[in-house]
């Protein structure tokens, strides 16, 4: 039973990997960017847990900056993904412009909030 | 092919014509929304109303005079003496900044309006904006026809009028616009999946957070809708784009507002949004994996993910619970708790329960405030279910939650009103749609064009609906085009199919004509009621009162008389004590320092004033002396029959005072559980300060001392004041101002003696008074 489940898991990961290998390069770059942002957020949370959350607004803006960029990048990825039928009308340039605008607002707010 | 081209041309011309018509109708709706709120200016004068608006007016004056930076750092030493209040950090700045900006723009255009004028007309202007926002929201849900109907209903819904007549310069005036507009942008993002609208949505949410504490309604309703969509299997990537950026950006923007600050991540009102934020990420991941795997593999993945996911979820929930338990306010604020548990406030926080607008509403008030909409809402809900889309499910959720909230607090009827308007608009427009369509098919002699002409020559409302019908047709056609873009030829096929379907739904001619007439009558009834409510019920400024009697109209301008007396006859730094209702007005109109005001942030301080009002004269004098009070102001309606005076509010003073200082006991003021001030009243009641200050010299007016509010002769008619002296009483005796007598020097030995004599009697009281922090 255990062996079969571990074999299943192996199959699963192999299938996942082969499915993922087929995605276009630009989407992979976005994925990397998302991973990086989430990883940075995690580092900050760990640091907060070790050192303490004293300038709470700094911590909050740091983490939310990372989470925000990750979320926005995911949105961009959803919009430029050619497999998504919903966004056929949306040009990738338009999606990127929206992404830049949203990031601009986000980071203006964060700079204001950083204290 | 040429024929279809011609048809397309006709459609586009019609479409353009419909757009122009819709634009003018919207313009007229804006004018209507603005002008129906001017009754108060016409009947009375251009004056700020009630209590809270005076505070907002004063803050706006400060803002326009000293600029934005001084405003953020404003420490006000004129209220809550001797504590003061940090206004910049404790006020929702949206309304003030809006009016200040309006004033600044007008002045830089060389239009010299006074700040007061701008403040008076802010609410009507924003109600016009609100009705346009309603049009946009309803258009996103059910098309332009429903949008116009909903906008016209919102422009004159009595519940909203009651909070936004000219002069009612309160947070709700701009907040309702912000609420509807935020919902519109959310729906728009949900329908289009555009990140641009998501950004706008979070900025609109920021404006809402700036304006009103009711923003927690948004940040709980939207997660609820997202959760509903996920649970019912309607998850889409548009939902993710609509929700996830809103949470991150909205939280950051909300914590920029000083009054919210870290509460945006610390209090339980916001936790629902974070929880759903996590859930939507899990769901998004699941959908992504599902899309990239074969079904068999996906089953394996589910087994794996469920076992891991459950563990992660438990960890998350544990962290959340720990956060809630450790947060300083125990998670929920008092007002939110009293929303979840309607009996909470009356049990624990009398100061919230004492405000009449925090009471649950009575049934007639539903009929008064939303009138026929109450009957149309169920029809609208049914219309929303056929077919159910993401947008219409949001509207249904909105009405259900707001009905509950309005049942808890009267003032939240205001949140219900837009939802009721939207659903009634949908219901009315769908009904007109069905009836006019059946008339159209029953009268084949009329061609499409002549029918449009006939419609416009008829009544206003059917005209609306015919147009709605048309625009809906075109919009339907457009959507069908969009969805079948790859095959352009069979555009007519679905159209003809829908026409066949429509033909099946045809009603008999007579029935539909009668039904249309009845609906128009219903609408007319609503209009008549709304105009009546705007003109008679809701436009009284409550600072100037009028009464009709057999010998004509009487105007009672006593409040302004009293405040003017205070500002002309007292020193600038004198402190005036009154019940908290009159605090804002005293600071704004008389410019004198007050002890407590309508921002009830310090319960103990209010309880101190309540205790003083319900104590006997000497004890009250000592409390007031310790607070450095020079003048005491009481409002008394017994002579002219003004029911909301201090004697009627007195039991709340006793309750609030007794909640902090236990020697004040409510039963001492009641005779057999009844509150009375006639000869049967208890001695405690007849000797308390409020009774004495209200009825001092009252017997001199008519010889009998008959109180017209309580409809009885008062219990104790002839008495003298020992520690207070009357300095001013207004024309109709509505406001009476007393001065504290200064302590006498030479009597000192005497008091010591009498103290030692009566020490046994007053010892307990004295101990209580010593605990008094002032």
TrEMBL record, chain A:
Q: Which residues cross the membrane?
A: 32-50, 56-76, 96-114
Q: In which broad location class does this protein mainly occur, judging by the first location in its UniProt entry? A: endoplasmic reticulum
Protein name per UniProt:
Dolichyl-diphosphooligosaccharide--protein glycosyltransferase subunit DAD1
GO BP terms in the entry: protein N-linked glycosylation
Q: Which domain of life is it from?
A: Eukaryota
Q: Quick check: keyword Transcription in the entry?
A: no
Task: Return the similarity comment.
Answer: Belongs to the DAD/OST2 family.
**What's the stated role of this polypeptide?**
Subunit of the oligosaccharyl transferase (OST) complex that catalyzes the initial transfer of a defined glycan (Glc(3)Man(9)GlcNAc(2) in eukaryotes) from the lipid carrier dolichol-pyrophosphate to an asparagine residue within an Asn-X-Ser/Thr consensus motif in nascent polypeptide chains, the first step in protein N-glycosylation. N-glycosylation occurs cotranslationally and the complex associates with the Sec61 complex at the channel-forming translocon complex that mediates protein translocation across the endoplasmic reticulum (ER). All subunits are required for a maximal enzyme activity.
- InterPro entries registered for this protein in UniProt: DAD/Ost2
Any one Gene Ontology cellular component term annotated for this protein: oligosaccharyltransferase complex
- Species of provenance: Phaseolus vulgaris
Q: In which pathway does it act?
A: Protein modification; protein glycosylation
Topological category with respect to the lipid bilayer: Multi-pass membrane protein
Checking PANTHER family in the record gives: DOLICHYL-DIPHOSPHOOLIGOSACCHARIDE--PROTEIN GLYCOSYLTRANSFERASE SUBUNIT DAD1 (PTHR10705:SF0)
Quote the subunit structure annotation: Component of the oligosaccharyltransferase (OST) complex.
Automatic annotation (TrEMBL), chain B:
What is its subcellular localisation?
Endoplasmic reticulum membrane
Cofactor(s) in the UniProt record: Mn(2+); Mg(2+)
Domain of life (superkingdom) = Eukaryota
The residue ranges of the Oligosaccharyl transferase STT3 N-terminal domain are 20-423
State any single GO MF term: dolichyl-diphosphooligosaccharide-protein glycotransferase activity
Domain spans labelled STT3/PglB/AglB core: 573-632
One GO term of the cellular component aspect?
A: endoplasmic reticulum membrane
**Similarity comment:** Belongs to the STT3 family.
By what name is this protein known? dolichyl-diphosphooligosaccharide--protein glycotransferase
Q: Which organism is it from?
A: Phaseolus vulgaris
* Classification of source organism: Eukaryota, Viridiplantae, Streptophyta, Embryophyta, Tracheophyta
């Amino acid at each position: 039973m255990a062996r079969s489940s571990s074999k299943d898991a192996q199959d699963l990961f192999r299938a996942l990997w082969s499915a993922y290998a087929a995605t276009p390069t630009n989407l992979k770059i976005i994925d990397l960017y998302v991973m990086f942002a989430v990883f940075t957020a995690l580092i900050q949370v760990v640091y907060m847990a070790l050192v303490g959350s004293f300038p709470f607004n700094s911590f909050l803006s740091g983490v939310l900056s990372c989470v925000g960029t990750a979320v926005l990048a995911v949105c961009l990825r959803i919009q430029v993904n050619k497999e998504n039928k919903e966004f056929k009308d949306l040009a990738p340039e338009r999606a990127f412009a929206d992404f830049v605008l949203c990031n601009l607002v986000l980071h203006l707010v964060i700079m204001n909030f950083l204290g | 092919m040429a024929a279809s081209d011609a048809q397309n041309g006709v459609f586009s011309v019609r479409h353009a014509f419909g757009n122009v018509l819709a634009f003018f109708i919207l313009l007229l709706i804006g004018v209507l929304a603005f002008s129906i709120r001017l009754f108060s200016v016409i009947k009375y004068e251009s004056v700020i109303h009630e209590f809270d608006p005076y505070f907002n007016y004063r803050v706006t004056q400060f803002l326009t005079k000293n600029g934005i930076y001084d405003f953020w750092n404003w420490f006000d030493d004129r209220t809550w003496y001797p504590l003061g209040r940090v206004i910049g950090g404790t006020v929702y700045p949206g309304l003030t900044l809006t009016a200040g900006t309006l004033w600044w723009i007008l002045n830089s255009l060389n239009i010299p309006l006074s700040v007061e004028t701008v403040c008076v007309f802010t609410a009507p202007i924003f109600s016009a904006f609100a009705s346009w926002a309603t049009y946009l929201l309803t258009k996103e849900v059910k098309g332009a026809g429903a949008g116009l109907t909903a906008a016209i209903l919102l422009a004159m819904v009595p519940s909203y009028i009651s909070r936004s007549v000219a002069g009612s310069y309160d947070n709700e005036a701009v907040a309702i616009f912000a609420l509807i507009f935020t919902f519109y942008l959310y729906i728009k993002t949900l329908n289009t999946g555009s990140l641009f609208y998501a950004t706008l949505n979070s900025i609109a949410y920021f404006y809402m957070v700036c304006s009103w504490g009711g923003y927690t309604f948004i940040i709980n309703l939207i997660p609820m809708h997202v959760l509903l969509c996920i649970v019912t299997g309607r998850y889409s990537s548009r939902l993710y784009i609509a929700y996830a950026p809103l949470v991150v950006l909205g939280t950051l923007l909300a914590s920029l507002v000083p009054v919210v600050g870290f509460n945006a991540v610390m209090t339980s009102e916001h936790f629902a949004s974070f929880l759903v934020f996590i859930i939507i990420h899990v769901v998004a991941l699941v959908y992504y994996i599902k899309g990239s795997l074969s079904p068999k593999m996906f089953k394996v993945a589910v087994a794996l993910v469920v076992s891991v996911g459950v563990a992660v979820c438990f960890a998350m929930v544990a962290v959340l619970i720990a956060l809630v338990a450790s947060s300083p306010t125990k998670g929920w604020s008092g007002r939110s708790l009293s929303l979840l548990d309607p009996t909470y406030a009356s049990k624990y926080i009398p100061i919230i329960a004492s405000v009449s607008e925090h009471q649950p509403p009575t049934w007639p008030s539903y009929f008064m405030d939303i009138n026929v909409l109450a009957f149309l809402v169920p029809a609208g809900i049914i219309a929303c279910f056929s077919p159910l889309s993401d947008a219409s499910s949001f509207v249904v959720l909105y009405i259900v939650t707001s009905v509950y909230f309005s049942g808890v607090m009267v003032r939240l009827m205001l949140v219900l009103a837009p939802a009721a308007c939207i659903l009634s608009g949908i219901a009315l427009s769908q009904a007109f749609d069905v009836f006019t369509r059946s008339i159209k098919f029953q009268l084949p002699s009329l061609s499409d064009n002549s029918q449009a002409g006939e419609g416009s020559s008829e009544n206003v409302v059917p005209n609306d609906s015919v147009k709605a019908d048309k625009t809906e047709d075109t919009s339907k056609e457009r959507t069908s085009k969009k969805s079948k873009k790859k095959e352009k030829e069979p555009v007519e096929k679905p159209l003809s199919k829908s026409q066949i379907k429509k033909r099946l739904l045809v009603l008999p001619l007579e029935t539909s004509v009668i039904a249309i007439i009845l609906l128009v009558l219903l609408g007319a009834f609503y209009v008549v009621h709304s105009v009546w409510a705007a003109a008679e019920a809701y436009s009284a400024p409550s600072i100037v009162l009028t009464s009709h009697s057999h010998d004509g109209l009487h105007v009672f301008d006593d409040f302004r008389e009293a405040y003017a007396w205070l500002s002309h006859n007292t020193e600038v730094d004198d402190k005036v004590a009154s019940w908290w209702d009159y605090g804002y007005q005293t600071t704004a109109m008389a410019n004198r320092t007050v002890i407590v005001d309508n921002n009830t942030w310090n319960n103990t301080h209010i309880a101190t004033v309540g205790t003083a009002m319900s104590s006997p004269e000497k004890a009250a004098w000592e409390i007031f002396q310790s607070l450095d009070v020079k003048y005491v102001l009481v409002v008394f309606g017994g002579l002219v029959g003004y029911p909301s005076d201090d004697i009627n509010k007195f039991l709340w003073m006793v309750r609030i005072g007794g909640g902090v200082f236990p020697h004040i006991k409510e039963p001492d003021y009641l005779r057999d559980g009844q509150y009375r001030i006639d000869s049967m009243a208890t001695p405690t009641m007849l000797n308390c300060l409020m009774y004495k200050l209200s009825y001092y010299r009252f017997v001199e007016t008519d010889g009998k001392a008959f109180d017209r509010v309580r409809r009885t002769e008062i219990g104790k008619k002839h008495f003298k004041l020992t520690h207070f002296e009357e300095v001013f009483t207004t024309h109709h005796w509505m406001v009476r101002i007393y001065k504290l007598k200064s302590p006498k020097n030479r009597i000192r030995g005497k008091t010591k003696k009498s103290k030692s004599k009566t020490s046994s009697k007053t010892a307990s009281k004295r101990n209580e008074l010593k605990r008094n922090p002032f």
